[in-house]
Amino acid sequence: MSEEQEGLGLDSPEEFGAITQEELKEIQEQYRKRKLKDNLIGPVISTCVHVFLILLASLFKGETKAGNANVEVTQKIEEVIEEPPPPPPPPPPPPEPELETESETINPDVTETVDVTEDIATEIDETDEPPAAEIMDDVELMSDVKPSTSPLTSAKMFSSRSPNAKANAIRKYGGSGVAQQSLRKALDWLAKNQNPDGSWGAANKESMTALAVLSFLAHGDTPKSKTYGSHVRKGIKKLAEWGKDSKLPIGIHNENPDKGTAYTHGLVAYAIAEAYAMTGNYDLIAPLNRTIQYICDKQNSDGGFYYAYANNGHSNLSTASYNFQALKAAIAAGCDLQDLPVAIDKAITHLKKHATDTGFYYRTNISRIRAPAMRGVGVLCLQLLGEPNCKEAKRVGDYAAKHDIQHLEWRDNGEIALYFWYYTTQVLFQRGGSGWNEWNKKFQKILIDNQHPDGYWLSPTPLELNHCGNQLIDNQVYSTTKCALMLTVYYRYLPSSVIKKSGGDKPSKKQTEAAKGEEFIDIF
What we know:
Elements: H1 3-7, H2 13-16, H3 21-82, H4 102-105, H5 118-125, H6 163-173, H7 177-192, H8 205-218, H9 229-245, H10 261-279, H11 285-298, H12 317-333, H13 340-353, H14 373-384, H15 391-403, H16 417-431, H17 433-449, H18 462-466, H19 472-487, H20 489-492, H21 509-515
Helix pairs in contact: 5-6, 5-7, 7-19, 8-9, 8-10, 8-19, 9-10, 9-11, 10-11, 10-12, 11-12, 12-13, 12-14, 14-15, 14-16, 16-17, 16-19
């Protein structure tokens, strides 16, 4: 039996009889169709099932995604609705202004006296900035003292001590880099020689401390300064103690109780006033008011001051000068004592009254005595008190500009050298012009050449040192502070004017005769 017959269920041909050829072909054809059908149904069904499952899976995933998306959106919306947004963060603090360094702002070609090096930029980086920071040469500043229009009687007078302004002032007014290095060495020496209690000196601690603090303040240093801040803070604290607690006048000396107190008290009040102007420390208000009020109370009726504040109707200009400068600093610091403007008006009237053709008096009770240094003292006080252009200041200032450079020599000639130069340097700077240019070139070189390698100076005239006491440290502090203050002249105070002159007239015969017989003075 064939395979095909077995597949059709035919056991044998004998059992069913014979089959024709056509029937056999038809049977085979049916078998093949059924076999094909059987072979196709399974895969087709399987394929359909898989396709169906795939479709179902796709539909199921799509619905899940849509559902999840709806849930997420719903949650976000609920969060926004139910919880208010957090408050915005505080605005960031404004960035610190970038200060130009002096090495960037100084142009060595401006004047032949300028020799600025990187040391200036270094020192300025370590100096704090006082409230004002611009030199306003083109702005007419109104005075706090009427009817004056001098910028030196307002707080703006200190504005050129800030870092950028210092750089501009050194460049503009002819300061040299080497001279500023000398100044830095002097301040280093003062810092190293400060007493543990914050004072300076030995026999004249009050005066020396005031001069040292004034030197640091003039350089633009405050208690916040990186290099000298601690020294300035301790010095100001000591001055404040004296101003608040000491018996007035400050600085009574047992060895000579009739002299020195008016100098010392005036100096301490002067330094306290400038310290308050530059720091705004309210702890200084009480000592400031106390020391300044004492000066106002002890001023003579004609506006001057005498030794130990003796109210005898006479005045010693060397004594009076520190008190005049203290009044100036107090008004610039915003001191509101009722008697202060009156005292300033009296001082101005007094100076104008006692000006001569060639200078100012030394003591009003000895009319024959005049001193070359008093020219600078009187003119500077008028400048600071708001009268730089009065006829007296101009007349005596003209004379000083033409003649006093002859006194600028480092030698013992019997003069009060550093005291003399200190005032004249400031006067000529305030005036400007050719007189200042000539003096500026010479005085810087003299100070640089005669500074001790350790950083201090010592006056070349024994007469001047004798007035500081018999202590070497007092002589060193005095001489060093006077020289240091001269080297800060470019930025210590804003210039009251820049007077351009072509040389002027020669002194008259009367002026020449009046200048004869000038006598030298003491300073303590």
